[in-house]
Structures are given as structure tokens and as C-alpha cells.
Specification:
heterotetramer, A: about 325 residues, Butyryl-Coa Dehydrogenase, subunit A, domain 1, Butyryl-CoA Dehydrogenase, subunit A, domain 3, seven-stranded mixed beta sheet, globular, C: about 400 residues, alpha+beta, Butyryl-CoA Dehydrogenase, subunit A, domain 2, four-stranded antiparallel beta sheet, 13 helices, about 15% strand
Amino acid sequence: MYLDLDEGERAVSEGVAAFLAGEFPLQRLLHSSDSEALEAFAAQGWLGLAVPEELGGAGLSCVEEALFFMAHGREAGPFDLFPQMLALEVARHSPTLVAELLSAVHRVALWVATEGETARLVASAPPTVALRIEVQRVALWELKGKELSERTCLDRSVSFYLVPRAELRLLAEERCDLYLRAELALASMEVGIAQRALEMIVAYARQRHTFGRPIGAYQAVRHPCADMAVRVEAARCQLYYAACALREGHRDAATQVSAARVLARRAARDNTDLNIQLHGGLGVTEEYPAHLLLKRANLLARLPGGRSWEREALLQESA
Amino acid sequence: MYLDLDEGERAVSEGVAAFLAGEFPLQRLLHSSDSEALEAFAAQGWLGLAVPEELGGAGLSCVEEALFFMAHGREAGPFDLFPQMLALEVARHSPTLVAELLSAVHRVALWVATEGETARLVASAPPTVALRIEVQRVALWELKGKELSERTCLDRSVSFYLVPRAELRLLAEERCDLYLRAELALASMEVGIAQRALEMIVAYARQRHTFGRPIGAYQAVRHPCADMAVRVEAARCQLYYAACALREGHRDAATQVSAARVLARRAARDNTDLNIQLHGGLGVTEEYPAHLLLKRANLLARLPGGRSWEREALLQESA
Amino acid sequence: MDLKLSDEDLEFRARARAWLTRHVPKEPRPPYGEAAARFDREWQRKLYEHGFAGINWPREYGGLGLSAIQQVIWYEECARAGAPHYINTTYVGLMHAGPTLMACGTEAQKRYYLPRILSGEHLWCQGFSEPDAGSDLAALKTAGRIEGDELVVNGCKTWTTDARFADYQELLVRTTPGSQRHHGLTWVICDMKSPGISIHPIRTMLGDEHVNTVFYDEVRIPLANVVGEVGQGWKTALSTLAFERGTGFIGDQLALAERVRQAISLARRVRLESGELAIENADIAGRLALIKADTLAIRAMTLHQISEVASSGAPGPKGSIMKLMVTSTAKTLSHLVAELLGWEFLEYDYEGGRENQPWTYDYLWSWVYTIAGGTSEIQREIIADRLLELPRAR
Amino acid sequence: MDLKLSDEDLEFRARARAWLTRHVPKEPRPPYGEAAARFDREWQRKLYEHGFAGINWPREYGGLGLSAIQQVIWYEECARAGAPHYINTTYVGLMHAGPTLMACGTEAQKRYYLPRILSGEHLWCQGFSEPDAGSDLAALKTAGRIEGDELVVNGCKTWTTDARFADYQELLVRTTPGSQRHHGLTWVICDMKSPGISIHPIRTMLGDEHVNTVFYDEVRIPLANVVGEVGQGWKTALSTLAFERGTGFIGDQLALAERVRQAISLARRVRLESGELAIENADIAGRLALIKADTLAIRAMTLHQISEVASSGAPGPKGSIMKLMVTSTAKTLSHLVAELLGWEFLEYDYEGGRENQPWTYDYLWSWVYTIAGGTSEIQREIIADRLLELPRAR
């Protein structure tokens, strides 16, 4: 029983953090798109983090994946990594498909909703494959046609792609605990976002002055920051626990993952909100990155869409 | 259109405030009971505030009654006044009954719940009559037997009296807008409580020092106090509006009264909570009156019990 | 106290309703830019020509000289009729500069500017905040040097809404070199076409460019444009702010009720993930009911405030209570609706603005609202200082 | 990271569970007074005699020398078995005085006091806070005058829990006359039977008399009782507080999970005014789910904290995060249950205490919890100062 990062875990965590800070820092979203990002992560081998070694991956677990997505969340990293890496789990039984996903020959969008005859996908560039995450199954669908209608999203690093439902063909599906993997990855990104929001306002509060003092000397700033730290710490510790429980196959893994998700979503929502508010006017300007965290948190909060599942997992008799 | 106290209203408001501060100040509850209070109010003629002059009352309206109960709330005044004064409205058609209520020959308890075959009443002394407030009707019941079982209440100024349901006999009932009168009176008391909680902490924050400064100089105290003031002001203005709308027979009176009640209950709950918290250790001691406001607010919050009615009145199509 | 409207009030309401039904523009207001400013000017001119501009401004300056209650009635009828939102490019002129000139201007200033504000001929912008003087306005540094009968201004102002379309600016500058805080300031009317002014738009997270930073390089302003006295600009500015914090947002306060009505109606239509109608979900319904109650309270507070002003003459620090209530209720509302709307909420195109995607726009606007015009934190300080008279640490 | 328990851990859990099943007292603990203290002493002696006292205290002082994980396991098993609540009259000895003596005491002090704390022979109480030194502990004024080999104490301490039943007190006094703030203080062991001590109970709004004000009139304490150095009492006190803010509330943190389980089970039984089961109401269910998540997080934070201490050796300022989490979650929980319970909640008899009416007691206790041991406001200051390193204004 040890609920903190060991050396190997720290290496993964710092490795991805350094790569992201160098190549895909949060500020990139002020000026550029993420449409080429997948290839860069493919080239570094990050996509195969949790893919078995025999299939060309690094053979690590959902614990390292959680650390990866936490670091990713801190920079509001390229969104497409989430469906791409989850798709690799669905594709396990097809080495060809795994290879095509690992090399980003196939580009995976997230299929987030079905509106009448139309499927709504989210990705940063036109996809070839769509991943649908449901509580009972996670499935990969190939896009047959090229008929994509693009719409802008509040999180400008991605677009919506609307495709006729009939043009999607089932490629592979998985019915085990992949839904929990998805929830865990989302929770991880949200913890990263909440953490970054805290760091951003703390740095600003140290240097910005008003009425002759740094704003960090006012309790109106200090106390909300303290509450932000509480939310991050709670969500992060629960994330660690849930990741371990999932890897170790605990009976209460679903409950633990739900708790992690609920707390991470709350932390991301409240911390990105307060980060803007406590910055004052600067916080609402487009050139300052505070709003990027808010908008990403808004997108993630709606994924994969199983709020009543979360509640049931938390309130079940045996939990 | 004038939504503030005129001269006559101010006189009522200040009169009752002065009487209560002199005879029934909040601090009385630290040492004595309210069992003799009704007679004192009867002697001063306060019970007949809204009773028509031809029946021996002062002939004022629900607006003055709201001001009366706001002043009453500030001192967590004798609880029995609420059922007694409402009973007078139910008794309108029987001058004898009115006289017996006005002189406190009859003592009215509030019938708050029916548990199996037992009726649960609330009063500060053994009652002779019980008032039941329901959305569709407000009714007065006489206690036939003397079989009262007494239980202590969190708000120690009153007791619970448990009586067999079969021993209650219908005396009079009223089906018009009396339910709204009850809600309005409760909202008024709650506004008074919320206001008193604010005054109490503001006075303390001016004189109590910590770390070399009055605590009122810390934003951790100042800002919650400001929020308390916002809640009081919102609830108070809405109370005024609702009282006028009820008196003037506006179509939206139910919606307005519901809004007043919802905001008053929130203000009483949050302000009595913060008042204790911001006092620190002193706030939880029995000798300091902060807890009296909290406990009274707890009792009132459960009365008369129509939360879903309130919600419906606020969300109805035409509101 | 009573809610009775006089015969004049009722007659005014009927007249306003009838006129608005016929004259509210069919086409939506363009979201940004010159086209929006033109639209606002035209609507204002139409109001002026038909006798609906400056409801409670004195008749001698072109207003209607009506009561504050009739002003409320007007806003309610505008919200009901879907009339153009009154917080537009005419706002600073009508709500800041106009009242300030009435309180502190010379007779010549009043006669010249006030009717032109009412007719939509002159648009105004504000010039108070600076990059290092936001919440702490008295820290401003933009300097005005007196040379003969002119003020020569150098420095920079920021968060100036619609600076590009404004004809004039209410400009607060430091005219006493080396003066501290609120001493040595001057409030002056600046012609925005003066040489030496350059305007740099600030894009916000909403995607618009309403606000700007304005730079002043040896901008020359006649001393005749000073409002109040040279060196007494803080006093003049306080009257501007008192108005904004007093009754300057009444229209907004009342318009919120219409938004809540729309949200409740939305909750009757949309279904949650679980399949139930949103309105039937106890959590959603409870939150909506509370928002509705808050909105009714805001209207009651507005009427109470008007009644207090009518009897005491001054709005007092309760404007800060109102700003906290209005901005926090608007925020709670837009965040709740964001939950109801699903993917439609996220499909924001950054070009459509408030007209195309009102709920997403309102959601993003909720931070502007709780920050601009004095952050919520500053409003709480004002309440603690002035209303509760708590000891100060500053 | 991993959640795997070692064979020793599993064996200890099985042993603890089996023992507790057989030995947890059938009768409830008396709520107040001497009877309660006797009950606590007896339970502690039973633990001591059966080898379950001082799970992670060193063996040389009578402890079991087990790991922090096993300490956690012990608390979990106690909560599961309904064992007597460990926050009782033995708390200060076991959680404050004991750890402080281990860190700063002389060998003689350790040998004498520690085993007697473990065996329940000695009950301790705290003597830090004063009427004018609560949150601001360093403002304390109670004076200790050195005369020969004695300290003569005059003054007053307050909020002293269970002072009437305690044998000893951890007493913090000002021994350097005229010294300021945290300088010149001394931490000393005070025999509560010393002449000159008088104890005045403070009734709280819960109806109990757990806390007291203690007056000292020429109370003579041997200098040999000083823990740490004379004049260095602040250093000693910090080690006391670090322990309390570090892992001193682990048992409470874990017991909360059991309360949440009971609340969820209650929500499955009780019906709301509308007739539906509480658990089926979206508002109630959503709030309960969040409380459940917070409770799981508190357990995860506890394990994380233990892991950090295991690798770094020190608990750090995260104890303040824990206290905020635990006290706010407990408050949210008890306030939610208050809504579910209806009139049963209000039928509070003021004599039964926690045992008779646990939910109403917990509801009232929620304020004690967010105030005692450093208010929530002070905890936020500690986080801002020490964890976030924000600039100070104080």
C-alpha cells in the first residue's frame, strides 16, 4: 500500500509534462491548431503507453495512463489523444488496426451524440474512425463516406464533424471495463486542468498589485485559492486511488472511478471559473490563456455522458 | 407605487420592535420560557392587529402583519403568536371565538404533523386549540381531552405536544388565501432572524480583535457579512412586494409570496449559520444568543410544509 | 407601501406598448462593428423623434421629464417587446456622461451635449480604467498637462467599450503632477477624433472586440471641456459611478426576468440524459425556482430603491447589493442553462455574438458581468465599508 | 503506487476484527460527565491489556510499533465494529500530549507518562487557548513566573475539553515577562489537582459541558515538568499542533464513511413530502453522491498522506486541507440528513447527546468542528501561506 508516485511513475509523469511543455504548451491554442498533433505523439511512442509490448506498445497500465492524461490536462493537450489511445484498447484483437492507430494512419474522433440520422463527432482534424463510449460497450466505427460537415466548437482546438449515421460501419467493440478507463482518463485531464488553473492564479496573485499590495495578500483572493487547492488535492488523491483500484481489479473500482470523476469535474469547473474571476479583466481577454482551460473543461464535462451511471455507482448498496 | 414603509407602517414596525426589545428580548430565551407571553401581547392589543375593528381588532392588513412578524423574528419572539394570530383569521365568522382568541382564553398550538394516530403540536405551553395549515384549507381544532404528551424541541422556547388524533374536533375552517398569509408571516419572521444574525456579527466584528486588528477588517469576515446583507435586502424587498401583492389581490400573489418565502428561508438558514461560524468559539456557547436564532430558523424552515407548492407557484407557466 | 400604478402610469404603459409593437425593428441588431453602432444610432434617433428618449431626463434637455416608475415601465415594455437591448453603443452617453453632465456640467455643456446624446447623434465611451488601475481606479496615471487654455494628455486607458465608434469620451486624467490617489484628477470631455489618439481593440474570450485600449500622445483638449473643476475630477467621477451603481442597470435587472421565463420554458421542452423532462427533475426544478425567486426579488429591490430615492434623494451604497444580486443571478442562470442545452451549447461560432447564440454568449458574458464596473470582490468591500460600517484594513 | 496490503496487514486486520467483535462494549457510552470518563478509561485499559493500545507508538513506551497503514486498518475496523468513538476523554493524551512528549520530552518524562496514557490511567487536557487568544494563539497572556525550581502560574485558559476529568494538562504559558507573540513561552505539564486551579464549565449549544474555562491562581508546577526548553514553548507547541493537523484526525476521517453509509441507507427508507423515496429525488441523490465521493476522497487523501510521510518524514501543511475537507463534508452531510429526518430531527432532548440523537448532535457539532482546532478561515490562511506561498498581509 503506497499511494504516491514511485520512481517509474514519476518518470512517465515528468516525461510527458516536459514533452507537452516543449511542443504543445497551453499557449499554443492562442495561435495554432492541434490538427498535426497526433503524428508528433505517435512519433514519440506516447500513443502506445498502455498497449502491450507484443503489439508494439510500452506495456504500462491505467495508472501511468492517468498520470499521462493529468499532465495532458495541465496544457489542455491535443484532444484527439483521448479517443486515439482508448481506441487502441478496443482494437486489441487486430494487430493491423493497432498498428494503424499507433502510427496515426487512422485518426480517431469521439462520437459524442446521435441526433436523428446524424452522428456528432469531435476531433481536431477530419477523422477516419469514430469511437463511441457507452456504459455497456465501447466501439470503433469506420467512416465509409467522406461527407463531413464541420462546425466550430466553443473549445476552438477541436471541431464538430456531423456525418450521416448510415455511413458508419462497426470495426471493433469491447464490453469489459473500458468505460471505466474512459472515465478515468477524463478525470485525469480534469485534475490537470484544475491544477493548472490554480497555478495560474497563484502566479498572478503574487505579482499583480492593487491598492498598494499584491492581490495574493487579500483574503478575497487567498481563501478561494485555498479552496481551489483543496479541490485539486481531493480529486488527485481519489484519482490515484481509483487508478490503482481499476488496475488491481477491486470490486469497488466502478465506485472509486465514479468518485474520482465527480470530484475532478467539480474541481475543473470551479477552479477554471475562479481562475478567470480572480484575474479580473485580464482573465476574460482572448490573449490570456485562462479561458482556454474553462472551455476545455466545458467540453470534457459533457463526456462520455454517463452522469446517472456515476450516481448509481456511488449510491449502490454495497459501495 | 411606493415600496417602502410609510409613516403608519413605520409606527407599527417601531412599536412592536420597542415592545419586544423591552419585554421579550432575544436574550430572554437564555433563562426563561415564553409560556406567559401570549397574555402580555393580548393585553397590549397586538393579537388583533389584523382583526377588523368591528370584531375588536385594529383593522390593519397583511402588510402591517408582515412588519409585525419581521420585528418578532428579530427577537425570536414568542412562537405562539403565529398560530394565535392566524387562528383569528379562521375564526372570523364566530365573534365569540374571536374574543376568546383575542384575550388568550383559548391558546392555539400549531398542528405540524400527523404520525399514525397521533397529532404533533408545537406551542410554548399546553394549548386548548390547534391550528392546521394546509394549502387547500386552514382549520382550527379543539382539543377535547387533556391527554398531552410533552417532548422537548431543539428550539427550547417551545415543546412538542403529542395528542391522539381522535381527540381533536373541528371548530372552524377557511379555504381562501390564508395559506398565503401563513407563508407570508413565516417569511417575515425569517427575514427578521436573518437581519438579526447580520446585526449580531457586525457588532461583534467591530469590537473583537485577533492578530492585532478587529476581525471586521478581514475580508474573511467582511465578505460573508456583505453576502448576508445581500440576502437580507433581497428577502426583505421581496417580502414587501409580496405583502402588497397579497393585500391588493394581484393575480401573481401566490408566486410573489412563494418567492418571498424561499428567499427568506435561505437568508435565515445561511445567515444564522455564518453568524455562528464567524463568531468562532463564542458562537457555539449556550450563553451567547447566536444559537437561538439558528434553532428558531430550523423550526420555522419546516413550516407549514408546502415546499413543492412553493416550487410550483414559482415555475408555473403564467408566473 | 403599495403597488398601485397611477392613471398616468397606466396610460404611459399602454402608449409605450402600442408604439413598441409597431416600431421594434424586425431585423436583428448586427453583433459587432460599425453596423452595430449605426443600428444603435438609428434606434435611438427613432426613440427621440417619437418622444421615447430620456424618459426621466428633464424636459429642458430634451427628455420627457417622467417619473422613475415610468422609466421602469418603459424597460419592462422594451423587454416584453424584444426591443433592442439598451446596453449598446449609446449606453455610456445615456447612462454615464448624460447624468454626469446634468450633475456637474456647465450650462453650455448641458445645452450642447445632452440633446445630441438623446438623439443618437453623439456616441460616448468611458476613459477611467488603466492597465494598472482597474479595481483601484485612484491609482490612475494618465497625465493632463495644462498649457494655456488646453489640456495636453499623454497615457493610456483600457477596457474602453466601443471606443472606435464613439464621438466623445469621459476621460479622467491626473492634472496635478505628483498628486496621489484621488487628489489632482480632472474629468474632461475628449473628442475621439482628436489627433494623437490611437485605439487598439482587445479581443475577449467571447470572440468580440467591444473593448479597447486607447493611447494618448499629446492629445490637446480645450479646458472648456472640463466637467466640474480642474483637480476635482474624483468628485465628478463619483457622481458618474454613483449613477451606474445606483439605477444605471435597471433595464438589465428587469430584462433578466424575461431570460428566466425563457429558461423555464426551455426546461419544459428539453429532456435530460435520463429521458425525463428537465422541469421534472427535482434538482433542476429547485435551482430554477430559486433563480425565479431571485429575479422577482431583483424587481422588488429595483422598486424599493426607486421609492427610497424618491423619499431620500440619493441611491446610497445599495447599488452594490444590486450589482451582486444581478450578476450572480445571471451567472447562475446561464450556467444552469448550459447544462440543459447539451451540444447545442458548445456549438459556438465566435462570429454570431449574443443575437445568434444568446445562451452561450450569456454564459461567457457572466464573467465579464461579475468583473466589469467593479468586481464582485470590490462590491463586497463597498458594502462592508459603507453599508455595514465595518472597520477597514486598507 | 498500489493498494496492496501485506500479509502482516491482512493478518492484523483479521485479528483486530475478531477481537473487536468480542470486546466492543454492548452498553452505550454515557454521554457526559464522570461516568463517560470512567467508561473511556476502562475501554482504554482493555485495549492496553489486550495489546491494541498505541498501534503505531514505539514499543519502548508501551506501544505496538506497527505501521501507519495498520493504524488506518485499526480505525476502519473500529468504525465497522461500532467501537467507542476514539475522540473522547483519552484523546488529548493519546493524540496531543503523547506525541509531543515523544518528540520533545525528557527520557524520564517519556518513561513515566507515556505508558500511563496508553493504559488509560492518566487522562489529559489541553491548555493553549485563552479568551483573547483563540485563532491568534501567540497572543496568549497566562503568565508563568520562575521561583527557584518552580513555575508559578497565574491566568486563564479556555475551551479546555474535559478539564474536570483530566489528571494532567499540556499548558502553554508566557514565562518571559513582556515577551511578544511566540517568544518567551513555555510548554509545561500541569497536574490538574494542583492547588489554585479552578474549573468553570462552559455549556455549549449542544447542551453539553465538555469544555471549560480554567483559572490559575498561584499554581506551582515543578520546573522538571517543562517539556522542551523554558522560553521555547512555541517550538514544542508546534509539534503538538503539527500532529493534530497531520494525522491526529485519521480516525474521524475514516469514521465519516460509516456515517455516509448510514445516511444513504436512511435515504432509501424515508419519504419526502412529495411521497417519493428520498433516494429517488434527483436533488437529494445528487448531493448524497457528492458527499460519498468526498468521503472516498478523504480516505484516499489519508492514505496518500501516510505514503508521503513514509517517504518524506513530515506531514506538512496538507493537514489543513484535510481539516477543511473533513469538517465541510461532515457539515454538508449532517445538514442534508437534517432535511431528511423531519420532526424527528427537531426532537432533541439536550440530555442524550451523541449516543441518543446522533444526527441532531452531529448537526450542531458541525459548527464546533469547523471552529475548534483552528477555524476554517485559519486553515485557509495556513494553506495560502505555507502550501501556495502567497504573499502575507499580516
